Amino acid sequence: MKTGQTSRGRIAMDACAVLARWLLGAVFLYMGLSKALHPVDFLKLLRQYDIVQSSLLLNSMAAALPWFEVFCGLLLLTGIAVRGTALTLMAMLVPFTGLVLHRALLLHSALAIPFCAVKFDCGCGTGEEFICRKLLENFLLILLTAWLLVGHGRQFSLRFNLIKSSS
Questions:
Q1: Do 72 and 31 contact (CB within 8 A), yes or no?
Q2: Residue 71: band (very low, low, confident or very high) from pLDDT cuts 50, 70, 90
Q3: Which has the least CB within 10 A, 110, 119, 125, 139?
Q4: Is 57 helix (H, G, I), strand (E, B) or coil?
Q5: What pTM did the predictor assign?
C-alpha cells in the first residue's frame, strides 16, 4: 500500500513540475512577445529605470531582451535545457524584481501613498499593476524557477540537460 501511495505522490509531483514548466514558458513567451511587438513602448519603460546611460546599450537591451524572453519561454515549453533556462531566468528575475521594488519605493516616498497603492507599468508586458501584486507574482515566478532549477520538470522534456551525464 505504501508503494502505491508513493508512486501516486511521485506522479502528482511530476505532473505539477511539468505544469510549472509549461506555465513559466507561457508566461515568458507572452511577456516577451508583448514587449517585442511594442519596442518603442518597452524602450520608454526601460528608460524610466535609469539602468544605463548609453543610448546604444539601452536600445540594444530593449531590442534583445524581449526576444531572449521568447526564446527562454520556448525552451521551457519544449523542455530543452530546462535547468540552464531556469538558471538564466532566475538571474533575470531576481535583479528585475529588485529594480521594480526600488522604483516602487521611490514612488511610494515621492507620492506619499501607502506602498500597496503604488501602481505603475514595470515593463513586464502586463501593463500597470499594483506593486504588491507584482511583487507577489515575481516571487511566485522565482519559486517556480527555483523548483525547475533543482531538477523537477523532466517529464515531457525533449532534452532536460544539454550535457549528457556520465551515469
A1: no
A2: very high
A3: 110
A4: helix
A5: 0.83
Single out the residue of 122, 130, 56 nearest to residue 93, CA to CA: 122
Lookup result for grid cell 509549461? 22
For 115-161, write each residue's pLDDT tens digit: 999 999 988 888 899 999 999 999 999 999 998 888 766 666 666 55
Closest CA to 47 of 61, 30, 26: 61
DSSP secondary structure string, 72-114? HHHHHHHTBSHHHHHHHHHHHHHHHHHHHHHHHHHHHHHHT--
Beta carbons within 8 Å of 38's beta carbon, 6+ residues apart: none
**Rg from Cα positions in the chain:** 18
Task: Give residue 143's identity as a one-letter amino acid code.
Answer: L
Environment class of residue 130 by beta-carbon count within 10 Å: exposed (0-12), middle (13-18) or buried (19+)? middle
| Average pLDDT, rounded, for the chain | 87
Give CA separation, 47 vs 40, 82, 153, in Å. 11, 31, 36
CA atoms within 13 A on the CB side of 162: 7
